[in-house]
Design goal:
The N and C termini lie far apart (about 55 Å). The protein has 11 helices and 5 strands. The radius of gyration is 21 Å and the shape is elongated. The strands form 2 sheets. The chain has a 3-stranded antiparallel β-sheet. It has a two-stranded antiparallel ribbon with strand order 1-2. It has 2 domains: about 5-155, no CATH class; about 180-255, no CATH class. It is mainly alpha-helical.
Length: about 260
């Protein structure tokens, strides 16, 4: 078990209560980076936690009760059993119920802690839950969490995250807020490619920085590296927010930089 993240858990409790129609004022202060919110996950595609065979029976029972019963206490009980059996889906469903006060307000923080633990292991739906909470925040620090968890959710293959992001990029491009092009920028195989003709780095790099400013507002650039891969050139920008969370955004620059040696 990890230490209760009391300050943010309390904030999440207030946010969730506010979403249920009982808004309360929240006083927030700036704070230093907190490594507890940093997920040590690989670059590129993320493999979500797998369902262990020993949790299959408890998970099946929970799913059956969810389809056949409307009793909230029963739902909470069966999903708790699935969670305790080690099922990632069980943990996610149980944590979500706790987060919305199903076991009382004193357990809301436990639910958030469980969601955070799952998201740090690459659970897409848990990462999306943290994305939503971060989007609700009025704190500049906490709001910057949103794009971090959204990035993890997409790379974990969460269908909703992928769909939402594709629509978001299309909307930004249609409005001219992003340069015309394609790709999500999440890895080499989905690198952002600009469709307009560019004469070189003096034209291309400013467009990269424009993309970063739109998709990761308030984040700072910590590294910028050139890679050659599969006969193409890529520019990879590593970004960091006030919490010490980092993401990489990938650009295919072959059209305006070429490939050295070719």
């Amino acid at each position: 078990m990890h230490t209760r993240l009391a300050p943010l858990a309390a904030l999440c409790a207030l946010l969730l209560l506010a979403a249920c129609g009982t808004p309360k004022p929240v006083a927030l202060v700036e704070r230093p980076p907190d490594s507890r919110f940093v997920a040590n996950l690989p670059d590129g595609p993320i493999t979500p936690p797998v369902e262990p065979a020993e949790a299959a029976a408890a998970l099946a029972e929970a799913e059956a009760h969810s389809r056949g019963s409307t009793d909230a206490a029963t739902h909470l009980s069966v999903w708790q059993k699935a969670a305790e059996a080690g099922s990632p889906e069980g943990k996610y469903r149980y944590a979500t119920m706790l987060s919305f006060g199903a076991a009382g307000p004193d357990k809301v923080g436990d639910g958030f802690d469980m969601l955070l633990d799952l998201a740090k292991k690459g659970h897409g739906q848990a990462a999306m839950s943290l994305w939503r909470l971060s989007k609700l925040s009025k704190s500049a620090n906490l709001n910057q969490h949103a794009s971090y968890w959204f990035n993890i959710a997409r790379r974990s293959g969460d269908a909703m995250a992928v769909e939402v992001y594709d629509k978001l990029l299309a909307d930004h491009r249609a409005k001219g807020e992003l340069p015309p092009g394609s790709g999500t920028g999440d890895y080499f195989n989905s690198a952002i490619t600009f469709s307009q003709p560019l004469a070189g780095s003096h034209e291309g790099v400013p467009l990269e920085y424009k993309v970063v400013a739109v998709l990761y507002p308030g984040w700072k650039r910590v590294t910028q590296s050139l890679f050659q891969r599969d006969g193409k050139s890529f520019d990879v920008l590593e970004l960091e927010n006030v919490e010490g969370q980092r993401v990489k955004i990938y650009f295919d620059i072959t059209a305006w930089m070429g490939v050295p040696g070719m």
